[in-house]
Amino acid sequence: MAVPSLLHALSLQSPSLSSSFSRSPNRTPKLPRLSLTSTSKPSLFPTNKFSIPSFHSLCFIQSKNNHIPNSNSSNNCIVSSVIDSFFILCTSLALSFSLFVTDVEAASAFVVTPPRKLQPDELATVRLFQENTPSVVVTPPRKLQPDELATVRLFQENTPSVVNITNLAARQDAFTLYLLEVPQGSGSGFVWDKDGHVVTNYHVIRGASDLKVTFADQSTYDAKVVGFDRDKDVSVLRVDAPKDKLRPVPVGTSADLLVGQKVYAIGNPFGLDHTLTTGVISGLRREISSAATGRPIQDVIQTDAAINPGNSGGPLLDSLGNLIGINTAIYSPSGVGFSIPIDTVSGIVDQLVKFGKVTRPILGIKFAPDQSVEQLGVSGVLVLDAPANGPAGKAGLRPTKRDAYGRLILGDIITSVNGKKVTNGTDLYRILDQCKVGDKVTVEVLRGDHKEKIPVT
């Protein structure tokens, strides 16, 4: 299509070419014929080619057909050859220029890539990937059951109240002798009131030189120790945080709990994010020993809700989201968790907030380990020391001592308090926890080979 149009344009501008094709007044010239020929040489892609005669041939054919001798015919043929060469040169330049101007991206659409041959296992892998990874992933709204919705709502409403507590200890650098604060442990806690009080376990903050409290939004504040109770593994901290960050956990009661009741344990281990574990109450009125003093903690809640490392000090909630205990310990071999009941914790926290310490009735004695008393073949609590200014010393209880020859003289052995039998130290603590400061108790002791009842205030 481009060749005839270009030829026509050249014929209009060239006088020699126009004279060759100009119509004579006496004779109508005959136009040259264009013959369609095909190549006889076989090829892989047979094509038909148009044979276009050159200008020199056109000039010769026209002269022959006119049968008019012309002295300038040789000159005209030379001119035609020059024009023919010029035409070929222009065509070559136009094709060369078009190769640089043509859009490569558009032309690449016509490139046919042969299909890749894959092995059967590769085809299966590709098909599995394509079927399970659509180009547009549309996540339908998840449908939850009513109990699941209640659990999600409980978690979302109570997580702002649960904090992470980092225990920092002062360590001296061996080379520079500088004092450095090194994290030695972490645990969880929860906001108790709007005054910034935070409740956690005592073993979480034990031995700390500094404490950091991290809230759900990752904001961190310095904490001060208000008070602690080693015997019950409870401590109270205070942080100067904005009021909008302090969301106290609603306090419930633990007196009417039932075995089989659903419970939820929330923690904030390592300050990364909150965790939730669910379970049921496996047992009530259990007894464990304090990690700090070994004193028994009574009426402990046993649950199968996992209390993971770092969750100690977090809240144990009922299905209404009320606080019923503090997660305090877990027996690793069995995965059984224990929580201090909230009825015990509430009285301790109130005293710590008001007085900074817990006032608990004591006899003012030191007693021997239970194994030592068992070796003597008796049942009770052996008094090792009874200071004279203590309640037991003032009442007249006798301690264990040595005579002038170094022989051991056993002191009084407590066998009962207020008529309740005492077989070991745990029984004694349990009875005293039910008393108040200032109460008068009757202590029955085994002194030598006879028993005596001694009033102690």
From TrEMBL:
Record's keyword annotation contains Metal-binding: no
Entry's Gene Ontology cellular component terms: chloroplast thylakoid
PANTHER family referenced in this protein's UniProt entry, alphabetically: PDZ DOMAIN-CONTAINING PROTEIN, PEPTIDASE S12
Signal sequence range: none
InterPro entries, sorted: Chloro_Bact_Ser_Proteases, DEGP1/8_PDZ_dom, PDZ, PDZ_sf, Peptidase_S1_PA, Peptidase_S1_PA_chymotrypsin, Peptidase_S1C
Name of this chain's protein: Protease Do-like 1
Keywords (A to Z) from UniProt: Chloroplast, Hydrolase, Plastid, Protease, Serine protease, Transit peptide
Subcellular localization: Plastid, Chloroplast
Stretches assigned to the PDZ domain: 352-449
Region of interest called Disordered, as start-end residue ranges on this chain: 16-35
Molecular function per GO: serine-type endopeptidase activity
Family: Belongs to the peptidase S1C family.
Natural source organism: Hibiscus syriacus (Rose of Sharon)
Keyword ATP-binding assigned: no
Domain of life from the UniProt record: Eukaryota
Any GO BP: proteolysis
